[in-house]
Write a structure and sequence with these properties.
- By secondary structure, this protein is an all-alpha fold.
- It contains nine helices and no strands.
- α5 crosses α6 and α5 packs antiparallel against α7.
- It catalyses: S-adenosyl-L-homocysteine(out) + S-adenosyl-L-methionine(in) = S-adenosyl-L-homocysteine(in) + S-adenosyl-L-methionine(out).
- Keywords: Membrane, Repeat, Transmembrane, Transmembrane helix, Transport.
């Protein structure tokens, strides 16, 4: 039964990934350009906000599928050996493993996408390490919160949440995680857009954060927070709602 429940995770995750990336790609481009050291206008402004969408679409299906297959497998494995009160830790661990596997697929398309959006230069290794640095903390917040909100809502109404309710929980979890991890997103973007030889080109996240803090203060660390929260809240609704609905249809 458990094996049967994990099988739909691959197509459901892939479909959810493609849907959310194609629908919300313009907001991601705007956010990236807001965080660019060149400034929004010089980085392209509103021109060509769908630049890089082919590479994003190509990477979305296998990336999201890999994440959810790993997430569901690790979650199922850990649930069998850990007590119920350890569920948040189980979800954190499952999400972390999922991100590591997904990043191996995501990074090449992420490099192409970022370069198309603002024409930077950066090595694939730097992108991998810094994407993990950003994505794992994000998932550590988003997925335990999503699962906890679903459990709470299910308990309140006396039955398992519907897909639209799961999507709503995903929107809240995604928006909150987006807000608290914005500084890491700013640092990752600065590193990816850094010119060779500059201080940020070293790939050190803490150094990039310190550089932004010194030059722009708190507003700089939270540059693009509104479009990021908007995009990821909508993304959480679409991504997790689509995943939940598709998975139920395939079970």
């Amino acid at each position: 039964a458990e094996r049967r429940e994990k099988k739909p995770s691959l197509p459901a995750g892939g479909i959810a990934g493609v849907c959310v990336d194609l629908i919300l790609f313009p907001l991601d481009t705007i956010k990236t350009r807001l965080q660019s050291p060149q400034g929004f206008k010089k980085a392209g402004g509103f021109h060509g906000i769908y630049a890089g969408v082919p590479s994003a679409a190509v990477g979305s299906f296998p990336n999201a599928a890999a994440f959810f297959v790993t997430y569901e497998y690790v979650k199922c494995l850990l649930h069998t050996v850990s007590p119920p009160y350890m569920s948040p830790v189980t979800h954190m661990a499952a999400a972390s493993f999922g991100e590591v596997v997904a990043c191996l697929i995501r990074v090449p398309s992420e490099v192409v996408k970022q370069r198309a959006q603002v024409s930077p230069s950066s090595s694939t290794f730097q992108v991998l390490s810094n994407t993990l640095y950003q994505e794992i903390p994000f998932s550590l917040v988003q997925f335990p919160l999503w699962e906890s909100l679903k459990d709470l809502w299910s308990w309140k109404q006396g039955h398992v949440v519907d897909s639209w309710q799961s999507a709503t929980c995903g929107a809240f979890a995604g928006g909150f995680a987006a807000a608290v991890t914005t500084p890491l997103d700013v640092a990752k973007t600065r590193i990816m857009l850094a010119k060779a030889g500059s201080s940020n080109a070293s790939g050190n996240v803490l150094s990039a954060l310190h550089s932004v803090w010194r030059s722009q203060g708190l507003p700089g660390l939270f540059a693009g927070v509104v479009p990021r929260m908007t995009a990821i809240s909508l993304g959480g609704f679409i991504f997790l709602g689509t995943y939940d609905k598709t998975r139920r249809l395939l079970l």
